[in-house]
Specification:
heterodimer, A: 2 domains, B: globular, disordered C terminus
């Protein structure tokens, strides 16, 4: 089913009201919700019941890639130069592990950043139509994508959760 | 507000009287076994006594350091956990008293070392080690207890004022010169600010000396300037592991203020210190490996590659670093009380083994690691003493702390933000 392009935006004065609205909408079967908040808050994540972030997969891949790169880099360069230092074997794992560790963290960090930007669709060229400058100041917003026929019941649900205002977007 | 105070003072203590009696019995049994062991084989008895002294003292002090850090950084994520950490201060005076029987042991350990390496000089004279150790440990104990005193005083005073508790000697001492709730809370906050900083300054210094004097110096030739840092980091990690055990046990009994988020946060902290501990081990190892100097490498080779210590050392590393690292990668594992309890116990057992392989190989000449009735008995005695002192604390003080400026954690965190957003 295609994602509805239209929707409603509820504006809330308090976080509790926003959480209540999310809970009521979930109970009524509306799942396509997006919260707009002046500050990040775990309670919103938990209320929206979003699946775990896929960014962690990017981190894992980055870490494994970094560790492999570190091992290959240190072993290959040592074998290439073949210079005995301090009577130690050419391939000496203890000092190599420092490079392996650093590259694990570096690649893991870079891919986490990349994964985060990719999944959050940043940098944001187009601001979502539901955005209101007040959602960066002192109000919480809740954007519900739904069919036009659902506008009335959703509006009632939002108002019952103490929404300050409800308006339509994207029609 | 009064009903909240009452609610906090009427929570049942975590240890019932039966368990307390069992702990007292265990400590008595441990003392008796120590006495027999000292008469039977003093060298073996005192080395396991030292292992346990370092382990249990480090556990209690590490937890109090956690409480001090929690206060200094003005943390809010787990107030109940802070109180559970403060409770471990009850073992510190016991631990301080348990330092004194070490005097004959130090004579036994260091007399031999001075024969092997006379260049050590007066710094490692057993009497000098005993005096500076006693002074340092005494100062550390006093500063830690004063920190906890300031945390408890407003609550005790307010409870006496409201008639929630009878005026027994302990409460009378703690609330002496009570000047009213508001003033006392402010005074205690200031006192805690200073003393938390004091704990955090005294801890690395005292524990560096302890590491040098009571572990490093047991080997006649080995020295490592990083060993002090390694030891106080590992003791702090041990404090966190002990705290994890207590928190997981109480979370299973539904103690308020410990939800899955607090468990998860504590798990993250333990995970972080798993890495920190591994970094400390590695920093020691890599420098010794590079230098390849016989007086440094023999300490590591003896423990990691030679019989009978190698299996013990590798088991300790697996329990302290490998297992918690792998398990705590998962978020769900950190929210599960059974897993938290298991990992907390595993890290604690691993660190006990680590203390054992740090101390015993320097002193024990035999081909078989001494692990028998003496070791079990003395360890049980220390466990009993730690248990009853912890139980004593929570029989007298509330499990949930409360001061107006430090509110109990709000599971949804909703009101705090609501306040912020409406005032913006």
């Amino acid at each position: 089913m295609a994602r509805p392009s239209a929707g409603l935006v509820g504006s809330f004065r308090h976080l509790d009201s926003l959480l209540e609205a999310i809970s009521r909408l979930h109970q009524a079967g509306y799942r396509d919700l997006q919260a707009l908040s002046p500050v990040p808050h775990h309670a919103i994540d938990e209320a929206l019941k979003k699946p775990p972030s896929p960014v962690r997969v990017f981190t894992l891949i980055g870490c494994l890639l970094g560790a492999a790169t570190g091992l290959v880099l240190t072993i290959a360069t040592s074998l290439h130069v073949s210079l005995i230092t301090g009577g130690k074997p050419i391939v000496s794992i203890p000092p190599f592990l420092i490079i392996v560790f650093e590259l694990t963290i570096l690649f893991g960090g870079l891919l986490t950043l990349g994964g985060m930007l990719l999944n959050a669709r940043l940098p944001l060229v187009h601001i979502v139509p539901a955005y209101d400058p007040r959602f960066s100041e002192d109000r919480f917003g809740l954007w519900i994508r739904c069919e036009v026929r659902d506008f009335d019941p959703v509006t009632r649900l939002l108002e019952s959760a103490d929404a300050e205002a409800v308006h339509r977007v994207g029609e | 507000m009064p009903e909240r105070w009452e609610e906090r003072w009427t929570l049942p203590p975590p240890m019932d009287r039966g368990l307390m009696r069992a702990c007292i019995g265990l400590s008595g049994l441990g003392a008796a076994i120590l006495l027999i062991a000292v008469l039977h084989d003093p060298a073996r008895a005192w080395q396991i006594y030292l292992v346990n002294f370092l382990f249990w003292g480090g556990l209690a002090q590490g937890a109090v350091v956690f409480a001090a850090i929690y206060h200094v950084v003005e943390a809010r994520w787990g107030l109940t956990i802070r109180r559970l950490a403060e409770g471990m201060a009850a073992f510190l005076p016991v631990s301080f008293l348990l330092f004194f029987p070490l005097y004959p042991a130090l004579d036994l350990f260091f007399g031999r070392i001075q024969d092997v390496n006379p260049l050590r000089g007066a710094w490692f004279d057993p009497r000098f080690i005993f005096v500076r150790g006693g002074l340092g440990l005494g100062a550390m104990t006093v500063v830690s207890l004063l920190f906890v005193y300031y945390s408890l005083r407003p609550e005790v005073g307010a409870a006496l004022e409201r008639g929630l508790r009878p005026r027994r000697w302990l409460y009378g001492v703690l609330a002496q010169g009570w000047q009213g709730e508001r003033l006392e809370i402010q005074r205690s906050e200031r006192g805690m600010d200073v003393l938390a900083a004091g704990v955090l300054l005294a801890y690395p210094i005292t524990y560096t000396f302890m590491a040098f004097d009571l572990i490093m110096a047991l080997d006649p030739f080995w020295y490592s300037s990083l060993f002090g840092v390694y030891f106080f980091v590992s003791s702090f990690y041990l404090g966190l592991a002990g705290l994890t055990v207590v928190v997981a046990l109480l979370a299973r009994r539904g103690l308020p203020g410990i939800a899955s988020r607090q468990l998860s946060d504590l798990g993250k902290l333990v995970f972080g210190f798993t890495l920190m501990y591994a970094a400390m081990v590695w920093s020691q190892y890599i420098v010794i490996w590079y230098g390849n100097l016989p007086e440094e490498t023999h300490f590591v080779v003896l423990r990691l590659w030679e019989h009978p210590w190698a299996p013990l050392s590798w088991s300790a590393l697996a329990a302290v670093v490998l297992a918690p690292f792998v398990v705590f990668l998962s978020r769900r594992a950190k929210e599960n009380t059974t897993i938290m309890l298991s990992i907390g116990l595993l890290i604690s057992a691993g660190l006990w083994l680590e203390r054992y392989v740090l101390v015993v190989p320097s002193l024990w000449p035999g081909d078989i690691a001494p692990l028998g009735w003496m070791e079990i008995g003395v360890t049980a005695g220390f466990l009993g003493a730690a248990g009853w002192s912890y139980g004593f604390f929570f029989q007298h003080f509330p499990l949930l702390p409360l001061t107006p400026s430090v509110q109990a954690p709000n599971p949804a965190g909703a009101h705090a933000l609501e306040k912020t957003s409406s005032s913006a």
